[in-house]
């Protein structure tokens, strides 16, 4: 699944790469950039955490002219006026205008490196609104953001993940040459797909993926749960033999009418609808007309 997401980043999507200090997601971020450039798409990088040389390292040199790096490193807050794009300009208006000012501007890939720095200096709700506006604005095809989840409260991480159409969470693996990626993808129809894979990023920003094998102990545990019979230790029998089951199916239930009984009950008969009443000896019945004093 991870390769499919990278090779064909969906239009209008928001792809979130979630990492921690124990395992970086920057390699996968670079794979997204490299794949988009090879498809001939323009890529705009808001680089708050890494210099342009590091972002471009390993990227296909024949496509690098389509990479537009907006310098936020090493002065993301604009204290020394050394950055062309600062955190306070992270608004839909500024970013949209930034892309429109690019020569031969067209729907582009927006890469935010990283969202953590933006979230630490803005209201998370405002940032989510900005991302949503950018997705619907028309000048941005796909947004790809890197988030250091261990720098934020779980509530903040949760609302950003909820906004994303695809979340890739990376974690270390027992094999030092690989890391583990858990990809959760939500389709436009609302279907959610999830898969765990081992991955490795080469120096030329090429991704190799290996499916995570099932653990034998875990499979056995699931089998044991499914085979457990809660009625095995009872002092009485809850199961039916084949003969008992057939006999039970032949028993007519009292509240189920056969077709013949339904027809008999619904068939009209002579005199139906008439009310016959025979007075009782104890009935208080007055033969005089109670309204005989009215001259009508």
TrEMBL record:
Name of a matching Pfam family: Elong_Iki1
Region of interest called Disordered, as start-end residue ranges on this chain: 264-296
Pathway(s) where this gene product acts: tRNA modification; 5-methoxycarbonylmethyl-2-thiouridine-tRNA biosynthesis
Comp. bias intervals (Acidic residues): 280-296
Signal peptide (residue range): none
Listed CDD domains: Elp5 (cd19496)
Keyword terms of this UniProt record: Cytoplasm, Nucleus, tRNA processing
UniProt record similarity statement: Belongs to the ELP5 family.
Name under which the protein is recorded: Elongator complex protein 5
